[in-house]
Amino acid sequence: MPSTSHELLEESRNKKKIRRPSHRPLLVTNGFALMLLVFHPRYQSSYFFEEAGEEVWNGVSYRKLRFQHVRGAASPSALSLEDRVYPLEWRGEAWVEPSSGQTARLRVELNNPLTEIGLDRISVDVEYARTEDEPQPNATWLPTFARIEAATERQLWRNEHHFSDYRHFNVKTDFTIEDPDLK
Fold first, then answer.
1. Which of 151, 138, 152, 56 is nearest to 104 (CA)?
2. In sequence order, what are the residues at sequence separation of 6 or more whose Cβ sits closer than 8 angstroms to the Cβ of residue 39?
3. Residue 80's closest CA among 28, 156, 151?
4. Which residues pair with 128 in a beta bridge?
5. Structure letter (DSSP) for residue 144
6. What are the strands of the beta sheet with 121-130, ordered from one edge?
7. In the chain, what is the greatest distance between 2 CA atoms, to the nearest angstrom?
8. Are the C-beta atoms of 90 and 66 separated by less than 8 Å?
9. Which of 7, 70, 74, 126 lies most in the core, judged by the most C-beta atoms within 10 Å?
10. H or E stretch including 145?
11. Are 37 and 46 in contact (CB under 8 A)?
12. How confident is the model at residue 24 (pLDDT cuts 50, 70, 90)?
């Protein structure tokens, strides 16, 4: 006797996601120029500072300062990885021009590795120079070079940034405050 039962067949397929090449680098480094925030009044109490004497760098004599982040204190920078943000605790050195108090170089590294994400090391070395078209006392110091390195157990990433041809511009704004109740 022929079978009258019908068997149902369900098919499932594993669809592979096609990865399109990304133009985003593996290590995105931005905000390093803000490393000078370690000296900002909001973050000064987050660091221990000590004088480290004078040092000649690039033929110029600078005052050298060392600093180290106070564990758990506010940090001016963070690492964003996937959906999580990790505040970074830095230690480092700054080369400060004695006459202007401007920082000519800043070199920092992590206080401790971020073992929970496998990050052994991050280091940042930023060089600053005065703009050429301003008189000495009012000169603006801006980054000219930055090297950022990050290392895990098996990989090392290095990004280098070179900056030049800064342009000065002025902005003039006017504003009027109106009382919304008088409208």
1. 56
2. 94, 103
3. 28
4. 143
5. E
6. 47-57, 60-69, 90-96, 103-110, 121-130, 141-151, 156-162
7. 106
8. no
9. 126
10. strand 141-151
11. no
12. low
- The residue among 106 and 21 whose pLDDT is bigger is 106
What is the residue type of 3?
S
Q: How far apart are CA 49 and CA 71, in angstroms?
A: 14
Choose the weakest-confidence range: 3-7, 96-100, 123-127, 138-142. Answer: 3-7
Concatenating the DSSP letter of every residue in 104-136 gives: EEEEEEESS-BGGGTB-EEEEEEEEEE-TTS-G
Nearest to 94 by CA among 106, 76, 82, 86: 106
Q: Do 128 and 102 meet the contact criterion of CB atoms below 8 Å apart?
A: yes
At 180, which amino acid appears? P
pTM score over 0.85: no
93 has pLDDT over 90: yes
And the tokens for 29? 């480094």
In order, the DSSP letters of 37-95 are: GGGSHHHHTTEEEEEEEEEEETTEEEEEEEEEEPTTS--S-EEEETTEEEE--EEEEEE
Report, as an integer, the average pLDDT of 68-81: 88
Distance CA 12, CA 10 (A): 7
Place of tokens 């401007």: 102
